[in-house]
Task: inverse folding
């Protein structure tokens, strides 16, 4: 790890890493970017390719890094055929292209049957490949090293404790109202929270039945097979029935975890999930007449509603059920392709830590967006120095409002408000052409 | 930001105005106010051309074709100039397309269409028919009231739509597309100058509104105003159109489609043959720079990997050549596709990438179709041991299949049609659909009328 990056990461130990103006770190960040480019272009094939093509040798100013930022979809662009046909060495080679320790393809995949076996095999060899939630039926695959995991632990525990005042004294009941998803970055985060804040033996998940990467990829494969016309009606019926079983099961699991929360309501707990899941959980808590939580409980949230239709005041409704003032909730903004996260404040913004370089681009992702009176609106990009197993530069699909002024909460670090997804923002009328895709001919539950 | 003036047409009369400014992407339109009442017609009054004999319509359309060639008032020139700002096609290609607009109005083409699709006796009057065991009856291809959501990927589509609409005598409202709100009105204005008040002229209205705007479409798209809605793809445009389908309100769709090529091992007979096949393959692959459903974005080639790579290399070079329906240099490959294609690089055994992302064209060789959709001069060449192996990739989404050598069309056509393909051509001919042949699995003229019986 580079020296400048180490110094930036060391700020995680400060009482409040978000207090100082971000500008104080600009010089150090540029130095760290330049060091990271020098080392990663040697090891990361994908970075070397784009750096060579763009002719970028050095990072002297922030604009230099723009052509080197990877798209948030990069990590799911592996050919599906590699998974379908079990070409595990090739899939490892694909991951290696993005890795700073590109040795995964040298492993022996003799006993590997599924992608989940494959992930296990990589983990056992120190390639802690993480998957994303698999929107669209295909999971991202991203390499992490053991030191990435250690840094993630440090950041997560410090940020959580700093923002909520919860002591990492292993005293709490931990509730994760989601299914296990081995290999998913969120699973790692919850493990870290459990180790630091959880009373041993008292962490609860929605279900012990894991959602496997293979299941998610299988849904995508089924959709493609449907497009090719090679799925029988009985298989569609089975997929529908399986979907229905999962919904019923989730409902039963939610009821169970809601009862558990109700029975422990007088103990401090920590409930971590995204907004959509808080909504579902509090709906069930309300139905069973669960009492309010212990006032020292911590609610952690982030992510979005994932297309869920809810009343405008859904946050107030969630707050009312938990009985925990939402101003004190742990809120975060991030994306699964980086390790760090921006931490929410009482003023409703998300603050950027010194070890993350925030870059706001024009929608096209090619130029810096223009700042007007300390506010910049545009496409969010990050360079995260916490990431060392691969290149830390990433362009998101998010449209944000970015602030460099002092926040209403008193902090001086840069902050983000109003996060939306470009994909959800209508932009002009469709240019009608008759050029189609096969996927457009797949309907209903299979249709993603 | 460029600004383009869009005219409306109310029952054959051009309407100008700058009451509304609408933006679409980087372009803004100035258009007249939308007069909803002027866009629908009174059902108690027959349409102006309902009883006009087909022979007169053909003569008028033929004269229109000649007038389009001369463009006396400069309507086409004016439209072309503005269209360059809106279209994804180059001005060179647009000019070529405009030069051929009059082809759609040629008498042999008009007569052939009718001969294939509609008996003139039923169009011009009540055609007598004799069902077994009952008195003589009469049937008529009665003109309909139709609203048509046009696509704008090629100016030719406006000409085709106007010709079909005129031949079937109905009352028509053309919803102008944002990527070409100009060609249809330029043609209608040319017709109006030729003979103001002509029944064919007064049968047409045209207007621009934002496609899919429910506030407008929910009002207009009703059985009480129109018998039918014709919608040209885009996926979301088709979905939106279908949502209005109701008893008494038929939706006719020209669906978004995917086209393919099948190249037999005969292509590798000699270097000269392979060169010609690659040129034909490129012609089909990049129809309208791939903004067309007939563009063969997937090509299945029979041969060894080395053979297929040789084809790919030539194909990539041929994609960079200017053709009547292709720009040698089109828009650069989209970022999204670039990322996806880059994801395949470094696996030469499985994937090889030829060409460049700069708009000259990209070819990806693989053993199975890639799991993304090629667009914007990106072609996926899939190597197969036998063309029969390629049939499993032919689906309900498949439109045109271009085949080399032409002789193999006969052996393959039943299998292709059974799996869903709509059209089989010789490799190199995908871009040209002669008017009158079936289109998207049906005969449009037959569907643009209402079949009415008078039983004896």
Result:
């Amino acid at each position: 790890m580079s020296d400048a990056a180490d110094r930036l990461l060391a700020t995680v130990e400060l009482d409040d890493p978000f207090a100082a103006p971000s500008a104080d770190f600009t010089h150090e960040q540029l130095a760290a970017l330049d060091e990271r480019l020098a080392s990663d272009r040697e090891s990361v094939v994908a970075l070397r390719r784009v750096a060579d093509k763009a002719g970028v040798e050095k990072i002297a100013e922030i604009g230099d890094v723009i052509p080197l930022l990877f798209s948030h979809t990069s990590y799911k662009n592996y050919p599906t055929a590699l998974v379908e046909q079990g070409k595990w060495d090739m899939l490892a080679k694909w991951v290696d292209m993005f890795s700073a320790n590109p040795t995964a393809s040298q492993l022996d995949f003799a006993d590997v049957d599924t992608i989940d076996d494959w992930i296990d095999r990589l983990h056992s060899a120190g390639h802690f490949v993480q998957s994303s939630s698999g929107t669209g039926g295909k999971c991202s695959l991203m390499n992490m090293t053991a030191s990435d995991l250690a840094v993630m632990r440090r950041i997560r525990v410090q940020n959580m404790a700093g923002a909520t005042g919860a002591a990492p004294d292993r005293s709490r009941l931990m509730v994760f109202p989601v299914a296990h998803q081995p290999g998913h970055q969120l699973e790692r985060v919850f493990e870290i929270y459990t180790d630091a804040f959880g009373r041993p033996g008292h962490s609860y998940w929605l279900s012990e039945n894991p959602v496997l990467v293979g299941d998610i990829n299988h849904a995508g494969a089924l959709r493609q097979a449907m497009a090719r016309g090679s799925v029988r009606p009985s298989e569609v019926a089975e997929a529908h029935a399986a979907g229905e079983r999962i919904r019923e099961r989730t409902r039963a699991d939610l009821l169970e975890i809601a009862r558990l929360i109700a029975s422990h309501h007088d103990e401090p707990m920590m409930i971590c999930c995204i907004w959509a899941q808080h909504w579902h959980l509090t709906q069930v808590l309300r139905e069973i007449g669960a009492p309010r939580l212990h006032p020292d409980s911590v609610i952690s949230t982030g992510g979005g509603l994932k297309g869920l239709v809810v009343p405008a005041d859904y946050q107030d409704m969630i707050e009312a059920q938990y009985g925990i003032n939402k101003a004190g909730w742990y809120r975060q903004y991030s994306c699964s392709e980086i390790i760090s996260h921006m931490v929410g404040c009482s003023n409703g913004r998300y603050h950027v830590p010194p070890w993350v370089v925030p870059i706001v681009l024009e929608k096209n992702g090619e130029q810096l967006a223009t700042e007007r009176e300390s506010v910049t609106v545009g496409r969010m990009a990050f360079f995260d120095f916490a990431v060392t197993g691969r290149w830390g530069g990433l362009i998101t699909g998010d449209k944000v409002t970015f602030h460099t002024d002092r926040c209403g909460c008193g902090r001086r670090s840069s902050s983000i408000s109003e996060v939306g997804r470009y994909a959800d923002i209508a932009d002009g009328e469709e240019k009608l052409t008759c050029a189609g895709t096969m996927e457009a001919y797949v309907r209903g539950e299979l249709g993603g | 930001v460029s600004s383009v003036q869009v005219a409306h047409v109310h029952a054959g009369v051009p309407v100008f105005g700058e009451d509304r400014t609408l933006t679409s992407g980087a372009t803004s339109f100035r258009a007249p106010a939308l007069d909803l009442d002027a866009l629908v017609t009174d059902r108690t009054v027959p349409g102006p051309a309902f009883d006009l004999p087909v022979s007169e319509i053909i003569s008028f359309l033929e004269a229109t074709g000649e007038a389009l060639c001369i463009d006396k008032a400069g309507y086409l020139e004016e439209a072309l100039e503005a269209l360059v700002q809106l279209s994804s096609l180059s001005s060179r290609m647009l000019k070529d397309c405009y030069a051929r607009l009059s082809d759609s109005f040629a008498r042999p083409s008009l007569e052939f269409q009718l001969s294939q699709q509609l008996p003139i006796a039923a169009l011009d009057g009540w055609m007598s028919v004799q069902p077994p065991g009952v008195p003589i009856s009469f049937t008529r291809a009665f003109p309909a009231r139709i609203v048509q959501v046009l696509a704008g990927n090629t100016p030719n589509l406006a000409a085709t739509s106007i010709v079909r609409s005129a031949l079937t005598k109905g009352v028509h409202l053309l919803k102008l597309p944002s990527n070409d709100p100009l060609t249809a009105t330029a043609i209608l204005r040319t017709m109006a100058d030729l003979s103001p008040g002509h029944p064919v002229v007064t049968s047409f209205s045209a207007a621009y509104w934002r496609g899919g705007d429910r506030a407008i479409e929910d009002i207009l798209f009703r059985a009480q105003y129109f018998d039918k809605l014709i919608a040209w793809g885009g996926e979301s445009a088709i979905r939106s159109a279908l949502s209005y389908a109701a008893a008494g309100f038929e939706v006719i769709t020209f669906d978004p489609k995917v086209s393919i090529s099948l190249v037999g091992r005969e292509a590798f007979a000699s270097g000269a043959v392979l060169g010609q096949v690659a040129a034909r393959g490129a012609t089909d692959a990049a129809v309208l720079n791939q903004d067309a459903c007939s563009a063969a974005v997937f090509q299945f080639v029979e041969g060894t990997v080395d053979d297929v790579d040789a084809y790919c290399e030539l194909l990539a070079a041929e994609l960079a050549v200017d053709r009547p329906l292709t720009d040698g240099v089109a828009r650069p490959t989209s970022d999204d596709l670039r990322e996806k294609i880059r994801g395949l690089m470094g696996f030469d055994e499985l994937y090889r990438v030829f060409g460049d992302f700069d708009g000259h064209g990209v070819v990806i060789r693989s053993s199975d179709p890639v799991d993304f959709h090629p667009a914007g001069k990106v072609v996926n060449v899939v190597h197969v041991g036998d063309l029969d192996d390629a049939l499993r990739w032919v689906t309900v989404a498949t439109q045109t299949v271009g085949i080399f050598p032409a002789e193999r069309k006969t052996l393959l056509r039943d299998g292709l049609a059974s799996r869903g393909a709509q059209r089989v051509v010789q490799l190199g001919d995908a871009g040209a659909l002669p008017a009158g042949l079936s289109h998207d699995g049906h005969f449009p003229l037959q569907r643009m009328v209402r079949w009415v019986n008078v039983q004896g």
